[in-house]
Design brief:
alpha/beta, Rossmann fold, 6-stranded mixed beta sheet, 5-stranded parallel beta sheet, 22 helices, 16 strands
Length: 501
């Protein structure tokens, strides 16, 4: 299988090159030329397989330049019981609220966020990719994070030979627990730096660095090269397809649904990577009725799916669901490439976004968007109310991002009366990463303590749930990184971290 740039279809690469490179030289993203299809026999096989075997099967359909043994080695190193304790599978399906609603808990890994599902696998895919393309260079993993990706990437690449990782995060745009996870990160090859700005500033800065020929040349001269752990990297995106297909197979196997029965998939999203993976699963044959896109007050995706107009020229909100505080949704470019099958059209829209902050898609794309997706948004007040209601009615504890998805799903039901179709809702983070806001939502008032760990203890007592070990261990960890810079200083920080300065 070949992968090509969303902005120039003549730029082609095999999966190893795409994973190693991270982003195309023209600033576009790698997309598969075609989608592999799952047969009925494939679904029967997957229903009777464990998660590791499911991952191997699905990834082998995309990573055609990897051997079966190479894929098996990567998967088995990623999804170990040590990294994902609590059962044979690294995820859980929890039925709440009604017989037709299932929360897909994706946060039982080492950093308590769904990003672990891909970022425990990506380092192994990347190191094998570098060997395949004979790139005898150290990969500098450059990451912009709105909260969870940073820690998951740091943990995944910690002390991985042949790699260094540098994470930029918005100084005031992550939760206290997310920040502490990053600034206490262990490892000899890691570096963390705050940005005086928001996530979009960090993400735009990282993209500029990837296409900066001067810095790429300097890195090359000292035996280094850029790669990415953000969802712009194909190796981040492909593993996320697996858990949607796996969840469906589990529902069939447990007789919750019939084989071939349609489901809705609901995803809280900012950068559009997680829901794009669900779209890829649908293209492979997963019977998805609607992809429901849930946003917080930064509702640029809601407006786009409803109107076909993408306009980032709006107020940026810092919310209690910080991983979704994004106004430039990078992976949307991939969706547009698949819907238009035109590199010229996508390049034109991305140029317009860069120059004016806005673009409008064609009528045919608008029709496709409405056929595939439904979109809604949720305020902080309604997010807190959803957390409160879930706890009181179901005794279920959820984080603010999952709560946004649950709230938007109920908006969808109210508008469409689509109660008969089962829904899989992506639950993306442990509530303990956001103890302050979850606790205040449950109590309906702020909790009188400035100590986040005391809030976690109180949350544990109220909910009769255990604080995850990775969160518990943070209280004794030493802060290692206190650096901060302005977006225009990111290049200098990269040069200092590399051997190029």
């Amino acid at each position: 299988m070949k992968y090509r740039s969303t902005r120039d279809f003549s730029q082609e690469a095999v999966s190893a090159q795409a994973i190693a490179q991270g982003i195309c030289e023209d600033g576009g993203l790698f997309v598969p030329e075609t989608f592999p299809k799952l047969t009925q026999q494939d679904f029967i096989f997957l229903q009777n397989a464990d998660y590791q075997t499911r991952a191997q099967k699905i990834l082998s359909m995309y990573l055609t330049d990897f051997s079966a043994d190479e894929i098996e080695d990567c998967v088995k190193r990623a999804y170990t019981e040590e990294k994902f304790p609590g059962g044979p599978a690294p995820l859980s399906l929890v039925n709440i609220d009604s017989a037709n609603l299932y929360l897909l808990e994706l946060w039982h890994g080492p950093t308590c966020a769904f990003k672990d599902m891909a970022l425990q696998l990506l380092p192994h895919l990347l190191t094998k990719s570098l060997q395949k393309i004979q790139a005898n260079k150290t990969a500098i993993i450059l990451v912009a994070t709105s909260g969870d990706t940073g820690k998951a990437a740091l943990e995944g690449f910690r002390d991985v030979p042949g790699t260094k990782i540098l994470v930029f995060y918005p100084e005031d745009g992550v939760s206290p627990m997310q920040k502490r996870q990053m600034v206490t990160q262990e490892g000899k090859n890691v570096f963390v730096c705050a940005i005086a700005g928001n996530f979009d500033d960090a993400q735009s800065g990282v993209k500029k660095l990837f296409t900066d020929s001067e810095i790429r040349q300097k890195l090359s001269e000292c035996g280094e090269m850029f790669s990415s752990a953000n969802s712009i990297n194909l190796g981040r995106l492909l593993p996320q397809i697996v858990y949607y297909i796996s969840a469906y197979c589990d529902l069939v196997k447990e007789s919750r649904i019939k084989e071939g029965e349609q489901v809705n998939v609901v995803v809280p999203t900012g950068n559009f990577g997680n829901i794009l993976a669900a779209f890829y699963a649908k293209q492979m044959g997963l019977p998805v009725h609607k992809l429901i896109c849930a946003s917080n007050s930064n509702n640029v995706l809601t407006d786009f799916i409803r109107t076909g107009i993408y306009d980032r020229n709006r107020t940026f909100y810092t919310t209690i669901s910080p991983s979704m505080d994004i106004l430039i949704s990078s992976n949307l470019e991939r969706l547009l490439s698949h819907l238009t099958k035109s590199d010229c059209q996508v390049r034109e829209w991305m140029d317009s976004l860069s120059k004016t902050g806005r673009y409008e898609v064609t009528d045919s794309v608008k029709v496709s968007l409405k056929d595939l997706f439904w979109a809604g948004c949720c305020s902080d007040q309604n997010t807190k109310q959803t957390i409160h209601n879930l706890f009181c009615d179901e005794h279920y504890l959820c984080d603010p991002h999952t709560a946004v998805a649950v709230n938007v799903y109920h908006q969808y039901l109210s508008e469409t009366k689509d109660e008969k179709i089962p829904a899989i809702i992506a639950s993306t983070a442990s509530p303990y990463k956001f103890s302050d806001n979850v606790l205040s939502a449950i109590l309906e008032k702020p909790y009188d303590s400035e100590n986040d760990f005391q809030k976690a203890v109180k949350l544990s007592e109220l909910s009769d749930t255990e604080i995850p070990e990775p969160i518990k261990a943070l209280s004794d960890k030493k802060v290692r990184f206190t650096e901060s810079c302005h977006p225009e200083e990111m290049k200098q920080e990269v040069l200092k971290f590399s051997d190029a300065e």
